[in-house]
Amino acid sequence: MPPKVIFLDIDGVMNNLGTPGEPERPGLGACFDPHNVAVLNQIVRATGAVVVVSSSWRLSLPLHELRASFAAAGCEAQVVGITPDVDGPRRGREIRAWLDAQSEPPTRYVAIDDQFDMPELPGHLVKTSRFHGLTARELPQVLARLAD
Q1: What is the pLDDT of residues 89-127, one digit of tens each?
Q2: N or C, which end of the chain is more exposed by having fewer CB within 10 Å?
Q3: What is the pTM (predicted TM-score) of this model?
Q4: For residues 114 and 130, is the Cβ–Cβ distance under 8 A?
Q5: pLDDT at position 17, please?
């Protein structure tokens, strides 16, 4: 397992309430906002982190479609997996279950989400606003949680 992981929500993180659809992009990638994608790409370039999708989209799209959607939207992140469906209203428990299932858990990780609180992951959550998604405003917090 790569040493740094981003547990990533999609709605409210990789898009926002003002995101226009992009019909030329296939699948879920049409819903990604280029500004939010650019911030994720900046994080990935700076840290080498990989993505584990924690969004509820993981329940309706297979991993290969999620990967294709991220790529079609211009995301440079390697999508390595999804969290298990353990307890929908408690996304932190699903992330904790994924971490506990790893033979070598990541040395650094962050959960980026707009909706859920995650008491199971103290110090690892960065919340976004559904009005803006992932922006430069959250960048220092995310980079600090993934720093060596």
Answers
A1: 789 999 999 999 999 989 999 999 998 789 899 999 999
A2: C
A3: 0.92
A4: yes
A5: 78
